[in-house]
């Protein structure tokens, strides 16, 4: 009868150790049916034809392929392999997985083999010679958890593993986005250095012309000084641009898990950015929120807090443990086989409010996790809306700046011809040349901003976590 009861308790214990993580928990915030930033129109360009929200579209994972840049493709591969922060996130996932495996193993019996050989005189024997004794036992103890006291804790460990996995994905998404933005900033610094150097050469030629005119009494010392001042002002921009370029180079090298200077050769050649796709297709809000790893991480963190609260509540229930041992004892020509089966029940009686306090702590932590979950959802929608608005307005600004560059170049060319003919003064020529430099620099900044806004859109969609 005792053996039968023992096996019944074992069966109950096995069933109670089969824990599962909690299913998806709703944030209570209804996702919008469309993106507001994808519905605004503009008089300058047809923006609604540029950004299209498609409820059947999936989230772009390898989004950088849209930029058609082989160097960027190579950088993305390297950063996934070598970035140290991503390595830290992976290690945290491994740690969480090991904790989950430990939690699973903790639900099973603890079985130990104990062998104690000894030799000596025994006070209970009258023989005047040493006696050899060998005591061997197999001991087992098992918290069978009939009332499910430990199941929520095991569920929580599993949810923490899922949280760590989603957090790693979030790190990857942010890392790819950071590298993409930094890469376009680096190319912009290269472009700005090129634009400034080109305009500096034009201004130096103008200065040489003014100096030649001065020798022929056709220009004054004031004209020479004014043209020289413009050359110095333009030239002074180059050290700052070179410094920004080098700092960004160092940052990209570190992102790739390398020492500064290691990958500089990849960027020596100035590269013209490829034209962007005519249309950007984005997934619907519900799809985006379901794919964003930071939202998934916040949801799993909230689920873990629910399991933690359940665990705190279960501490009011008894703790039942099975105890058993079977052994053999041999002393020279004597032997015995002792065994025992039993169980212990521990029921909290008076703990002076400790369990209730832990329950209150778990409730507060659950509220914190829930509000964090809601805030993450709200910020995810805000991210996408902001990036859509920024991109669509930058498209309009970029088109206007492109017109401005063409107009200023024509004006500078006409100013140079009229100055040589004596129809306009030096100031008009210098202003025209400065306007060209400012317009070209602004257009290069806008081209970079467009690409960074696109990176923001793809990242806000949760793209990149599955590469």
Please, could you describe this protein's structure?
With 467 residues, the chain is of the alpha+beta class. The chain has one domain (2-460): Up-down Bundle (Outer membrane efflux proteins (OEP)), CATH 1.20.1600.10. It is built from 10 helices and 7 strands. The chain has helices at 2-16, 70-82, 84-106, 151-215, 221-235, 237-255, 285-291, 293-314, 354-421, 426-460; strands at 51-54, 110-120, 131-143, 280-283, 319-331, 334-336, 339-346. Strands 2, 3, 5, 6 and 7 form a 5-stranded antiparallel β-sheet that branches. Helix 5 runs parallel beside helix 10. The chain is elongated and about 135 Å long. The protein starts with a helix and ends in a 7-residue tail after the last helix. Residues 5-9 have low confidence and may be disordered.
């Amino acid at each position: 009868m005792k053996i039968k009861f023992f096996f019944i308790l074992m069966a109950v214990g096995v069933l109670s150790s089969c824990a599962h993580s909690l299913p998806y928990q709703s944030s209570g915030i209804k996702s919008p049916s469309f993106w507001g930033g994808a519905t605004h129109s503009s008089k300058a360009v047809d923006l609604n034809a540029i950004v299209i929200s498609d409820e059947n579209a999936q989230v772009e994972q390898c989004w950088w392929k849209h930029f058609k840049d082989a160097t960027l493709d190579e950088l993305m591969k390297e950063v996934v392999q070598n970035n140290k922060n991503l390595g830290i996130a992976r290690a945290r996932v491994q740690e969480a997985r090991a904790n989950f495996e430990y939690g699973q193993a903790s639900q099973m019996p603890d079985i130990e083999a104990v062998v104690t050989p000894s030799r000596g005189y025994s006070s209970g024997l009258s023989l005047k010679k040493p006696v050899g004794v060998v005591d061997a036992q197999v001991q087992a103890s098992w918290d069978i958890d009939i009332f499910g006291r430990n199941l929520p804790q095991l569920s929580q460990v599993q949810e923490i593993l899922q949280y760590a996995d989603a957090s790693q994905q979030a790190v990857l998404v942010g890392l790819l986005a950071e590298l993409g933005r930094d890469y376009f900033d680096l190319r912009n610094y290269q472009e700005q250095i090129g634009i400034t150097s080109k305009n500096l050469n034009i201004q130096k030629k103008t200065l040489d012309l003014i100096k030649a005119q001065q020798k022929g009494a056709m220009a004054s010392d004031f004209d020479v000084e004014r043209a020289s001042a413009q050359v110095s002002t333009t030239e002074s921009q180059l050290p700052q641009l070179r410094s920004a370029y080098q700092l960004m180079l160092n940052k990209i090298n570190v992102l790739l898990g390398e020492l500064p200077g290691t990958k500089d050769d990849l960027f020596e050649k100035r590269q013209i950015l490829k034209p962007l796709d005519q249309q950007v297709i984005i997934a619907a809000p519900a799809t985006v929120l379901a794919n964003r790893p930071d939202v998934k991480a916040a949801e799993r963190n909230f689920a873990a807090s629910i399991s933690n609260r359940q665990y705190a509540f279960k501490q009011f229930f008894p703790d039942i443990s099975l105890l058993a041992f079977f052994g053999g004892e041999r002393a020279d020509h004597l032997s015995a086989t002792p065994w025992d089966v039993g169980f212990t029940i521990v029921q909290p009686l008076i703990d002076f409010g400790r369990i209730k306090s832990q329950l209150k702590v778990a409730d507060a932590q659950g509220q914190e996790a829930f509000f964090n979950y809601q805030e993450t959802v709200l910020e995810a929608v805000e991210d996408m809306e902001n990036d859509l608005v920024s991109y669509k307005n930058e498209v309009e600004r970029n088109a206007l700046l492109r017109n401005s560059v063409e107009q200023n170049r024509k004006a500078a060319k006409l100013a140079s011809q009229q100055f040589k003919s004596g129809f306009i003064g030096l100031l008009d020529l210098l202003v025209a040349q400065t306007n060209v430099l400012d317009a070209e620099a602004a257009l290069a900044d806008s081209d970079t901003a467009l690409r960074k806004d696109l990176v923001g859109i793809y990242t806000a969609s949760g793209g990149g976590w599955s590469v």
